Amino acid sequence: MNPKITRFLENQALPTPYLVVDVDHVEYRYQQLKTQLPQASIYYAVKANPAMAILERLVSLGSSFDAASWEEVELCLQAGAPAGGISFGNTIKKASAIAQAYQAGVRLFAFDCLEELEKIADQAPNAQVYCRLMVENKGAEWPLSRKFGTTLDNAKTLMLKAKDLGLDPYGLSFHVGSQQTSIHAYEAAIAKTALLFTDLAHAGIDLRMVNLGGGFPIRYQEEVPEIDQFTSTIAQAMTQYFKNNIPHIIIEPGRFLVGEAGTICSEVVLTSQRGIPDGPKWVYLDIGRFGGLAETEGEAIKYQIETPYPEGDMVSAAIAGPTCDGADIMYEKTPYQLPIQLKSGDRVSLHSTGAYVSSYCATKFNGFKPLAEYYI
Ligand SMILES: *Cc1c(COP(=O)(O)O)cnc(C)c1O
User: Fold this and answer.
1) In 10 A of CB 115, how many CB atoms?
2) Which segments constitute the Orn/DAP/Arg decarboxylase 2 N-terminal domain (predicted)?
3) Which among 29, 33, 41, 66 is the best mutation to test ligand 1's pocket, defined by most ligand atoms within 8 Å of the CB?
4) Is residue 75 lining ligand 1, measured as CB closer than 6 Å?
């Protein structure tokens, strides 16, 4: 356990629920990635946690940023990022957002279909564009493949079209899915990307950039491969498939940089077996699906929960949030064992909650306040 966070949690006076994030740990992960894959430019995926303290620290380290909306672009600029270090990476952008970003100096835009490409050509003349490919998301605990990306054939047509529209056909991107636990996912996607580089070179277009997206996993309940296994596989695959003509590499880590840096402190509101023989012990926390734990949908992300009773008898538990919505259940099928003694008023910690929690927090539902956040 992180000593800085442990000390912070000792303050029992702070009302729960809250998220506490160790910004030094974000820096540690950034430096680690930078050292392991020095040939790549790091574009932090702002959506994972857009807190100013994180953005400012990353600006000071020389990071670039992947923004998904004009509002995220604006946050990066406020944090001191140069516009040239921001990629507008969402493939679904309002024309007005493209125009605002372009006026602010952003010159790098993603797309995956003709309509979006035409919007970029209208609002951001001469900009650099990259096309997102559809790739296999097997091995990812939070897949992203159904909603985004296009086929190789269509990407080829679109890159040729980009040039006709006066844009700069700059590169290709993919995302192998978030919390990707298989190191082979990147290899297959790089192979696919290299094919289209060659194909387009024959058609007179020399692409210069590959954007490998995010996906690097962190530890929740289960072990995941270390980051050096991912980075060495990536470096090898780039050499194998691009030979001595390796393009500029962009990576867009979100979860990997901020996830482990955060812990949620939550209070048990109620425990009950509800008179159901052999039923689990229901543990209702003051944070749930609508208070930021959105990635528990489908019980996809399984947070580690620490209680004040490390020793003693355990029982099967179902874990839910405090709202009156029946969907506000975090874990019912996943076998969680919690202490028999756990009762209302106890404080529990949910570890590795620095990514995709504060940014997912729905405000106001059932009158609960948005999650409090501390950056230390
Ligand atoms: C969400 C997202 C990322 C970050 O993904 P992680 O799995 O958190 O690393 C990177 N790039 C794009 C385009 C994304 O949508």
Assistant:
1) 7
2) 24-258
3) 66
4) no
SS3 content of the chain, % helix, strand, coil (to 5): 35, 25, 40
At residue 59 the predicted structure's pLDDT band, cuts being 50, 70 and 90, is very high
Q: Chain-centre distance of CA 314, in angstroms?
A: 33
- Pick among 1.10.8.420, 2.40.37.10, 2.40.40.20, 3.30.1330.50: CATH of 260-375: 2.40.37.10
Nearest of 217, 210, 108, 219 to residue 167 by alpha carbon: 108
Distance, in Å, from the CA atom of 171 to the CA atom of 151, rounded to the nearest integer, reads: 15
Rg over CA atoms, the chain:
22
Whole-number percent of the chain with pLDDT over 70: 100
For CA atoms 178, 179, 181, 186, the dihedral sign is: positive
Minimum-distance ligand 1 atom for the alpha carbon of 253: 9
Reported as a single tens digit per residue, the pLDDT across 311-358 is: 989 999 999 999 999 999 999 999 999 999 999 999 999 999 999 999
Token pair recorded at residue 267: 């209070």
Q: What's 359's DSSP letter?
A: G
Token pair, residue 360, equals 């997912």
Domain chopping of the chain, boundaries: 23-257, 260-375
Q: Is the CB of 143 under 6 A from ligand 1?
A: no
Please, which residues have CB within 8 angstroms of residue 113's CB and are 6 or more apart in sequence?
Answer: 91, 150, 154, 158
In the three-class reduction of DSSP (H, G, I as helix; E, B as strand; rest coil), residue 7 is classed as: helix
Name the class of domain 23-257: alpha beta
Q: Based on the number of CB atoms within 10 Å of its own CB, is 163 exposed (0-12), middle (13-18) or buried (19 or more)?
A: middle
Sign of CA dihedral 161, 166, 170, 176: negative
Q: Is the CB of 47 under 6 A from ligand 1?
A: yes
